[in-house]
C-alpha cells in the first residue's frame, strides 16, 4: 500500500518543481498561441532580471560600488542609489534583443527607453520600478521591484502618448520581493500566483497559486510620522484604529514588502495625499497601478481614497497618486472617512491636471 503511493508523492514533488514561471503562463492561457508565447517569454525575462538583482543584493556588502548613492538626482528630485541604477540597467539589458519589448519606462528614467531593433516586432512596453524602497538597501532590509506590461497602441512618434491610459490597459503586472527568499508574484488577469526562487535550481518555482486575500485583516500600514501632514480625514482614521481593538501597525518603508504582507494576511496599506502634497508620493504607472491590478485579481481593492485606482488616467508618465490598497472592507473603511467633500476636491484636481 505504502509502496504503491510512493511514486505518487515523487510525481507530485517533481510536478511542483517543474512548474516554472514560463510553464505556468502557458497553463494559465491553456494554449501555445503567439500571445501565450510572448507572455511566457516576457515573464521569463522578468524572472531573469529578478535573479540578477537578487544576486547583487545578496552580495552587496562584499562587492565594490553596490551600496550608497551615485550623487545624482532622478526625475522625481530624489537622490539616486547605485543599486537603483544597476537594477534599472538590468531590466534594459535583459530585454535587449528579446524582440518583445520596444519601450521601457521606469522611475529612474525621465523618458521612455526605446530598443529600436525590437520595435518592428515587439509591441510590448515594460513599466517598472527597479528598486522599490531603496532606503532599505544600505541596511540589508527587504526591497522590491514592481512591473507591468502594456501592449503598444497605434504609432508612437516618440511621445509614448498611448501610455497615458488607465491601469485597466495593463495585461500583466506583479512584483518581486527580495526578502529572506526572493518571491515573484504576478497576474495576467487570471488570478495571482507566487513563485519562490529556488537557489539550487536557479529557477522560480510555483509556491502559491490563486491567492485570495481576506476581506478584512488586522494590519494597517502607514507612515504615522506624517500624521500632522495628513488631512483631517486620515488623522480621524488613524485615531479610529488606535481606539479600536483588533488593529496592529506594520510599516517597512518598502511598499512591496508591506503590500505582500497584506496580500497574504489582509489589512490595508495607505500612502495618502497630504495637505501640501494632495497627490501623495507614489507613482501611478509603475508603482500604484501594477499593485492595484494584482490586488484586485486577489479579491482586494485599490483606491486613491476617492476613486478606483485602476480608473485613473495619467496626465504624465511620472504622475503620482494617493494610494489606499488592501482588503476590501479595510479599504472601504478608509474611504468612508475621506467622504464626499474630498471626492469632489480630487475630481477638480484631476480635471485641472488634465487641462494643463
Ligand atoms: P522609492 O521607489 O523611491 O523607494 O519610493 C517608494 C517608497 C515605498 O516603497 C514606500 O512605501 C515609501 O516610498 C516610503 O516612503 P516614506 O519614507 O515617505 O514613508
Ligand atoms: Mg518605488
Structural notes for this entry:
- It is a single chain.
- The chain has 356 residues and is of the alpha+beta class.
- It has helices spanning 2-18, 21-29, 34-58, 82-95, 232-243, 255-265, 284-297, 328-355; strands spanning 69-73, 79-81, 101-106, 113-114, 124-132, 143-151, 170-178, 182-187, 193-198, 203-208, 219-221, 248-249, 267-271, 301-303, 323-326.
- It has 2 domains: 2-208, Fructose-1,6-Bisphosphatase, Chain A, domain 1 (2-Layer Sandwich); 219-355, D-Maltodextrin-Binding Protein, domain 2, CATH 3.40.190.80.
- The chain is 37% helix and 22% strand.
- The strands form 3 sheets. An 8-stranded mixed beta sheet has the order 4-3-5-6-7-8-9-10, with helices on both faces. Strands 12-11-13-15-14 form a 5-stranded mixed beta sheet, with helices on both faces.
- A hairpin with a 5-residue loop joins β8 (182-187) and β9.
- The radius of gyration is 21 Å and the shape is globular.
- The N and C termini lie far apart (74 Å).
- The model has no long low-confidence stretch (mean pLDDT 91).
- It binds 2,5-anhydro-1,6-di-O-phosphono-D-mannitol and magnesium ion (MG).
- 2,5-anhydro-1,6-di-O-phosphono-D-mannitol (AHM) binds at residues 78, 107, 129, 132-134, 223, 253-255, 271, 281.
Outline the fold blueprint:
Layout: H1 2-18, H2 21-29, H3 34-58, E1 69-73, E2 79-81, H4 82-95, E3 101-106, E4 113-114, E5 124-132, E6 143-151, E7 170-178, E8 182-187, E9 193-198, E10 203-208, E11 219-221, H5 232-243, E12 248-249, H6 255-265, E13 267-271, H7 284-297, E14 301-303, E15 323-326, H8 328-355
Parallel strand pairs: 3-5, 11-12, 11-13
Antiparallel strand pairs: 1-2, 3-4, 5-6, 6-7, 7-8, 8-9, 9-10, 13-15, 14-15
Helix pairs in contact: 2-3, 3-4, 5-8
The protein binds 2,5-anhydro-1,6-di-O-phosphono-D-mannitol and magnesium ion (MG).
